[in-house]
Amino acid sequence: MTHGRLYPNLDVLIQTGYVKRSQIDRLANYYEITDNGREARKDRRKWKAHYLHETALAYPPATG
Asked: Strands, E, within the chain: which ranges?
């Protein structure tokens, strides 16, 4: 990810409530995942595990 995309992506995560920003000083910010962000990450991992499991069942590996 380039520097030019990092901060716009962080801004989207802040707007959706997944990340919060705090100011350390005039030049530095601190970004932290919120409870909503943790929940979304957990839901995404659950979805991904289910999707991969369903895909593996639908397309079993070929045997020799």
From this structure: 19-23, 29-33
